[in-house]
Backbone:
């Protein structure tokens, strides 16, 4: 493949959401294309590849040429990009299904330069997970439990949110996997105070044996 001297680019995909989404949440990804060379990129076609089992497409900025929720989104040309210039695309979804572990979301770019030769195709991806909500009834309403990004060794940090209007106290909590299939009861040595409408961060060690509910 012929490539113009002084040409080059990178594509970087990131998850905009600050924490892993629950089913029903909005999910956004940013795709940045950077012209790292001195030669202008005349056309910059981009594709976004995603799983329809976990995400449903709701829109993008700039808009895609297709809006069918089939796992492939296309931008025919988000250029031109002069040397050193960049552009960022934002793709929006709704989380529609829980994932087992991490799932990869990919972006692909295949630009051409002003004098014709095509650049090598570049791919970049970001992993994500979608958790099913777990509701635990109580007098004050319900609790919503889902995993956070932080996983250090054998420890996991989850966030518990009291969706009710009154404070509650818990002696333990049922932690459920993102697929909602398997749970482990975490017995605390102290009571957990959950303030109404406020999150509570809980650290626990994986592999603890169930003690009942």
Residues:
């Amino acid at each position: 493949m012929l490539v113009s001297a002084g040409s080059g680019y990178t594509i970087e995909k990131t998850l905009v959401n600050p924490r892993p989404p629950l089913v029903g949440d909005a999910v956004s990804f940013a795709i940045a294309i950077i012209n790292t060379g001195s030669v202008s990129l005349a056309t910059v076609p981009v594709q976004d590849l995603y799983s329809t089992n976990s995400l449903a497409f709701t829109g993008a900025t700039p808009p895609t040429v297709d809006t069918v929720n089939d796992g492939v989104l296309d931008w025919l040309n988000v250029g031109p990009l002069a040397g050193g210039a960049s552009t960022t695309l934002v793709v929006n979804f709704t989380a529609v299904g829980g994932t087992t572990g991490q799932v990869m979301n990919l972006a692909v770019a295949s630009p051409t330069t002003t004098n014709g030769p095509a650049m090598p195709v570049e791919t970049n991806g970001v992993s994500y997970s979608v958790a099913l909500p777990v509701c635990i009834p109580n007098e004050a309403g319900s609790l919503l439990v889902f995993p956070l990004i932080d996983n250090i060794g054998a420890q996991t940090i989850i966030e518990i949110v009291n969706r009710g209007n009154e404070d509650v106290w818990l002696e333990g909590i049922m932690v459920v996997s993102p697929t909602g299939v398997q749970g482990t009861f975490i017995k605390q040595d102290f009571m957990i105070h959950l303030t109404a409408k406020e999150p509570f961060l809980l650290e626990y060690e994986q592999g603890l044996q169930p003690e009942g509910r």
Observations:
- The domain at 9-128 is CATH 2.60.40.740 (Immunoglobulin-like).
- The CA atoms of residues 155 and 205 lie 5 Å apart.
- Confidence is low (pLDDT under 50) at residues 147-155, 175-190, 204-213.
